Amino acid sequence: MPTGLVTTWLEEKGFGFIAPDDSTFGDLFVHVSELRDARANGLERGDRVRFDVKYNREKGKNLAVNVIVEKSGGGASSGHLCRTFPSERHSS
């Protein structure tokens, strides 16, 4: 089962992105409905996760499914709606 790191989580939209340790997959979209921990209602930036990869023919991209949090990254506080790594922030 592949592993990776959550790079972005949009809490208000219920989805985010995972950077897999195996970069051949590229960044993977993940939806809250794919979280397998019954207590989890979202992810945080920096969470280490395990997941399966599924190809979405409609979108033409891989996505993460059956996501399990291995280790909490302790990312941004729960008051933040959008969580990204500083290197991913865009300047205006």
TrEMBL record:
Signal peptide: none annotated. SMART domains: CSP (SM00357). InterPro entries: CSD, CSP_DNA-bd, NA-bd_OB-fold. Residues 1-69 form the CSD domain. Pfam families: CSD (PF00313). It comes from the Eukaryota. Residues 72-92 are annotated as: Disordered. This is Probable cold shock protein A. It comes from Durusdinium trenchii. The lineage of its organism: Eukaryota, Sar, Alveolata, Dinophyceae, Suessiales.
